Amino acid sequence: MKRDEILMKLFSEDSKPLALEDVFVVEIAEENFAAAITGSLFAEMGAKVLRVEFSDEAKKISPFGVKIGEVGIPYFVESRNKEIVKFSDEIKEKIFSADVIIDGTLPGYLDSIGIGYRQISERNPKAIYVAISPFGHFTSKAKEFKNVPDSDLTAQAYNGYPMLIGNPYLSGEHSYPLRAGLWAAWAMAGVNAAVGAMIALLERLRSGRGQFVDVATNDALAVVTTFPAVMGFLFEKPRGRFGTIDYLMYPFGYHKVKDGYIALATPTDADFRALLKILNRWDLEPDWKFTLDRISDDLERIRVLDEELNKTLRNFTIRGLLKKSAKMRKSRLPFFGKFLGRPVIVKINTLKEVLQDEHWKIRRSFLKVKLNGKEVLIPNSPIKASETPPRIKKLLGKEVSD
Amino acid sequence: MTDYFEFIGSLMKGKGRGEALKGLKVVEITHFIFGPNIGRVLAQFGAEVVKIETPGEGDRYRAAAIFGRFYNRANLLYAILNANKYVVAMDARNEKARRIIFELLKQADVFVENLSAGLVEAMGIGYDRIVKVNPRIVYVSCSGYGQYGPLSRMPSFDVAAQGVSSVAMKTGWEDVDEFYKLPDYFGDYLPSMIAIFAVLSALYHREKTGKGQYIDISQCESLMRFMYDFTFYSVTGDEIGKTGNLDPASSPSGIFRTKDGKFVAISILTNSQFNALRSLIPELEDGNRLRKEKIKELNAKVAKWVEQKTKDEILEIAKKLGIPVQPVLDDKEVIEDPWRWERGSLLKFRDRLLGEIPITGAIVEMSETPGKIKWLGRPVGYHNRLVLKKWLKMNDEEIKKLEEEGVIGYWDEMPGIAPPLIWSAERDEVFKGEKDEEG
User: Fold this and answer.
1) Domain range for B273
2) In chain B, what residues touch A380 (CB-CB under 8 Å)?
3) Same domain, yes or no, for A64 and A163?
4) Distance from A34 to chain B by nearest Cα, in Å?
5) Which residues lie closer than 8 Å to B117 by C-beta, 6 or more apart?
6) Contact assignment for A161 to B183 by CB distance below 8 Å
């Protein structure tokens, strides 16, 4: 049997258990989608997730207001496998019996209505309480900003993210710091919170005790990537917007070619030399030979090389570049990588191209839900697991299929 | 009753119950960010992580210092990403080295690799072989496109994954023919956090059943999971595409320049937030405010209002009225932010080899089992002797023989790879394998 067939069989979902099927999670996220994402990760892994709502505001949030039935797209996608109920006295009692409580509301709000960590942990010391908010649930700043609601864009901003995106040579508003085009801070915060909750759950198996887990969306990116800390220590000035240029290696970005766009990376000097061979630009080699020649906080210097490469790349088609690149010899062992290089060149895809690609169909990266005779696509869980594959069975009561 | 914030603060300052993942043994053959970040987080919470590198240059991320700047001959990005790990260096071309790696994997609870798809099989340590001698192992393969499927053998890096998954098409201005990547290797870090969640879930299952498993995580699928654009496209037939600073699910929303030349982000998600903002800017009219043209119209009015106020004035208003507003910070402002130091997400750390350095703390704050940084990433092969003694019970003579045969090795004298210049092998008991990092 071929490797692919063996792996597909290994990762099949047939009659397998779910990893977290004995875990009961209560998600009180309201319009905080980082918290909803945390709940989704648990729900995909088989936990019973009860989403408790005070209002309908989360349902209204959707790109350009597009609705699926009565709800917005993020709400629809993140409803995976969840039971959704309105808050009531009966539900309040259930919250006390949860293994994991995800709180995406303003810090202290649930405490003020008697279902915060101090009340829950008193009755249920095994409870794991996961709080997700802009500044967390402790520190003087968290208290000062307790009434400021969360959003992805504001969290990106406080993480220092938009200051790194965009082209400083453009004028007017186009030179402003720029937002990452997806919910980068909320996605990271949601996953971080799920990781924290799982660490606590594993530890609980040993100690029998729960604990408080705190995630600040305003720090979720910076604390994971570590870049601002290192930058602040080593340099007097902050990083600016570098357009498509990177600060660890060059090239490592997007470039326009004759018939579209490519992502291009040359992680080693050998890879860079291979790129120059492909482009017939060996004349650039002496000045830009080493990694350290090609990275600098002096953007003007790197732009010289960037402009040369961009000028040359526009003469090539994507297909032509891929064909030439495939002919370069690349060592699979790190040691030989010093000598044999091949640049990483891939086509930048549109959504349509992604959805048409056989690869993602084979991997079941997207699932379908039938609604009024129409098929709606949702992204599947990105986790492939041989013994406990995550599964999405229902969205708002609708069956999910391949 | 105690103030809520003080109550939670007191929990966070408590003594706690020690390390959550103590006793968990992890082996990784990883490079750059995607794979190493998995071991980093597990090690923060107490796992014993052994990282296997190639003698000489080691993980190639060691050489990728920010703007080429090293500190005490270390790449601090590598040092933080590989904190709390035991680093060993073995030449995988050598049969004996492969046997040692195999022996380490027999003892491991978790194995993480992010080599090219299929390479671990060629090294004789594929899942099919390891599971036969260690059925409890949680084995994780990280790659750009996953372990199977037509693209699986294609090379990948953060930027490539962002391109193939179409994330690249999302960031930029609608009327400017340029795309920008999500910075700071989002295409590595986010997938790695998902992989950690998968590993922890698998460990939870193992605690209940005794069974390990194989996990396959792809960068592209991890990114696509958070692109609501695919669902939008299937419903409308249109791509959302680049929208500049406007969040299409939030109106008004954007990044605006204040009177004092600063930038603030404003993102209105609910009706009550909108009404609060309208109480300040009466010209704002709702009327299906999420329509694309309507968001632009509202943003123009907000921009005018913002340019008449200073950043601090706007933040004061946000606090009073409950409006999602935050300043747009740069690197310097992030590291100088007192909140982060109070919270513990930034801390001054004194490393035995590198000296005092500000570093990021644990990725989440936990009241009873807080994460901890114990030492920073070490030179190539630094823990060879310690690990071979501790894990495989080898003696000094056996280790010396492996060194002479080139089975195990150490660093080249290059920045990012070697110890600080003032370091002395003779005086370093940990390097000699006589003492553990924590004494």
Assistant:
1) 253-257+263-327
2) 221, 225
3) yes
4) 11
5) B141, B143, B145, B146, B147, B152, B153
6) yes
